[in-house]
From TrEMBL:
The lineage of its organism: Bacteria, Bacillati, Bacillota, Clostridia, Eubacteriales. It comes from the Bacteria. It comes from Clostridium aminobutyricum. It is found in: Cell membrane. Residues 10-389 form the Major facilitator superfamily (MFS) profile domain. Gene3D superfamilies: MFS general substrate transporter like domains. It holds the Pfam family MFS_1. The keyword Nucleotide-binding does not apply. This is MFS transporter. Its main location: membrane. InterPro entries: MFS, MFS_dom, MFS_Exporter, MFS_trans_sf, Sugar_transporter_CS. One of its GO terms (molecular function) is transmembrane transporter activity. Keywords: Membrane, Transmembrane, Transmembrane helix, Transport.
Length: 396
């Protein structure tokens, strides 16, 4: 019987710090485009850039984190990142123009990518090795809660109050992110001379990207590419069907379903191996997109949300677990960075690429294309990772 504790003070505080940061991310992602249009009369393309440049900043932040966190020191890196994240959140309250707002958004994304990658690395040290899938599943629920409630809170504040109140709320959430991180006991790992030399390598592809994490990183790229199409166009698709409110309900049901299913998936991965979780979850994800293709009723929207929770809702964090579980301690930060860089790239490119299919044949056709891509990704996963003996677990 496992006697190692998962729910320690450090684990909880790290998860809370990540939650408060993720709330700021999702609140601003869903409100900043409209803010730019209302306040600066920005065009749709500029407004979209103001929203999405945050993701670009996050990619660079993850690159920086993976390369330099161990050099600077984990605690110093995280606290500095959280403090700068707080300052960037406060900066929205200043009188800004379009150019300065773009700069703030990039820097905000950079600090978010840095601290999210760092927290995702540090928290692994708080999780018992034989409960890593379960632990990462619980830790990543901070993003799930933010996904479900961040956009709702953001739109409520904007409609009921003002953008000033919205930015004040974001600054307060960023402060709580810093405050939570301040009380996390972050120990400095001890590395060998060879590992230290590796950490001091120049900024090259080999130093920035962890090779062992690339197979799962390639898989998550296509998974996130398709999910970005859902987040970007589901609201418009629902409006076209005169079911506008179902888009909000979809993400709420999606978030609640993940809260129920994800811990079970983590435990299953720990006990039975990678394939017994990843293969069915990719299939569930494809099924959710096929369901959206033919969704004309509330029931099909709700079914698609539950299937997506069983699918993409588990793929993102289970893929991270697999990507880092066999990596040496001095490479965990780089492996985590590699994985999320590919995920962010998919999220960033998704709306652009999937928008081409929407323009060509409409929303339903786009979901069909996404369903095909995800179905083919079963073969991609198996070819890159699943066919290897260490992925098969005890059932094979």
């Amino acid at each position: 019987m496992d006697t190692q504790k998962l729910w320690t003070k450090n684990f909880i505080l790290a998860a809370l710090s990540g939650l408060f940061a993720a709330m700021v991310f999702y609140i601003t992602m869903t409100t900043l485009a409209m803010y730019a249009i209302v306040s600066f009369r920005a065009s749709a393309s500029i407004a979209g850039l103001i929203a999405s440049i945050f993701v670009l900043g996050g990619v660079f932040g993850r690159l920086f984190s993976g390369q330099y966190m161990e050099r600077i020191g984990r605690r110093k890196f995280i606290l500095s990142g959280c403090f700068l994240f707080f300052l960037a959140s406060v900066a929205y309250l200043l009188p800004l123009g379009i150019v300065s707002l773009l700069i703030i958004r990039f820097l905000h994304g950079f600090t978010f990518g840095s601290i999210h990658n760092a927290l995702s690395t540090v928290v692994l040290g708080f999780i018992p090795p034989n409960r890593r899938g379960e632990g990462i599943g619980y830790f990543s629920l901070n993003f799930t809660v933010a996904t479900a409630f961040g956009p709702f809170i953001g739109m409520f504040i904007v409609h009921a109050y003002s953008y000033t109140i919205l930015f004040t709320f974001c600054a307060f959430s960023a402060f709580l992110c810093l405050l939570s991180a301040l009380f996390v006991k972050i120990e400095t790992p001890v590395f060998t001379e060879e590992q230290t030399a590796h950490l001091k390598e120049k900024f090259t592809f080999k130093a920035v990207f962890e090779r062992s994490a690339l197979p799962l990183a390639f898989v998550i790229f296509f998974m996130s590419l398709c999910y970005a199409g859902v987040t970007a166009f589901l609201n418009s698709f629902a409006a076209e069907l005169n079911l506008t409110y179902m888009a909000s309900i979809f993400f709420l049901v999606y978030g609640v379903a993940i809260l129920l299913f994800r811990p079970l998936a983590g435990k299953l991965l720990d006990k039975k191996g990678d394939n017994i979780v990843m293969l069915p979850t990719i299939a569930f994800y494809a099924a959710s997109l096929f369901t959206l293709t033919f969704a004309q009723t509330k029931t099909l929207f709700l079914l698609a949300a539950i299937l997506m929770a069983l699918g993409y809702g588990n793929i993102l964090n289970m893929g991270q677990t697999i990507a880092v579980k066999s990596v040496d301690s001095h490479k965990i930060s780089t492996a985590t960075s590699t994985y999320f860089i590919f995920s962010d790239a998919g999220m960033g490119l998704g709306p652009l690429l999937m928008g081409l299919f929407v323009t060509w044949k409409g929303y339903a056709f786009m979901f069909l294309i996404e369903a095909v891509i995800v179905t083919l990704s079963i073969l991609l996963y198996y070819g890159l990772h699943g066919r290897h003996p260490h992925a098969k677990g005890s059932l094979v």
